[in-house]
Design brief:
The protein contains nine helices and no strands. It has helices spanning about 1-20, 30-35, 40-60, 60-70, 85-100, 105-115, 130-155, 160-180, 185-195. The protein is globular, with a radius of gyration of 19 Å. The two termini are about 30 Å apart.
Length: about 200
């Protein structure tokens, strides 16, 4: 999840650099005193961008997607079957960071909101684990979300780069298949994606 969060921050930074006018819709302001600390407008813009990304990364992962959809005017969660798995992984990560994997009412609420299919033994107060098979599935979900998110936003904001984006998509898929970064059940999906490119 840490790698995904770092990726998201870099992705959003790159998108704002591609379309700097999108930063104008930010409600962030600088006082005259703050502005006088910068040597140029571009330095002030970078500061505002950094603050925008920090704020985004403090949101929940579902709120981040909502923010991205609103900011970049694109539907990101439509026809995305991996979404519930991704949300469960992000919420389980929060449980391990904050409560040693003990299921909370917040975890159950968020999972219900995003139609996560939970094991019948997963109840408030129970302790979750991360067996190898779960870890592999979680990794694949994060990988898939990251690849799709990057591709959709890249193509949306820089349509002139479609051919480059398609090549990069194929290279990413081939890399994952070669390194066996995806399970056999996910391989057919990634192979068909590469074939469509």
């Amino acid at each position: 999840m840490s790698s995904y969060d770092a990726f998201l921050g870099k992705l959003v930074g790159a998108l704002f650099r591609i379309k700097p006018e999108l930063l104008k819709s930010s409600d962030r302001t600088l006082t005259y005193l703050q502005l006088s600390d910068f040597d140029s407008i571009s330095e002030a813009r970078e500061h505002l961008l950094e603050k925008e990304i920090e704020t985004l990364l403090r949101k929940s992962h579902s709120e981040q997607f909502e923010w991205l959809e609103n900011r970049f005017a694109v539907k990101l969660r439509v026809d995305l079957p991996i979404w519930p798995t991704f949300i469960e992984v992000t919420e389980r990560r929060n449980l391990f960071v904050h409560s040693d994997g003990i299921v909370s009412s917040q975890y159950l609420k968020v999972c219900r909101e995003h139609e996560v299919a939970l094991d019948s033994e997963t109840k408030q107060g129970s302790q979750l684990e991360v067996p190898h098979v779960y870890f592999k599935s979680a990794y694949e979900a994060i990988f898939e979300i990251g690849v799709k998110l990057g591709q959709v936003l890249w193509r949306k904001l820089k349509p002139s780069d479609i051919e480059v984006a398609e090549r990069q998509s194929v290279l990413t898929v081939l890399w994952a298949l070669e390194r066996e970064e995806v399970s056999s059940s996910a391989r057919s999906y990634w192979i068909s994606l590469a074939a469509r490119q």
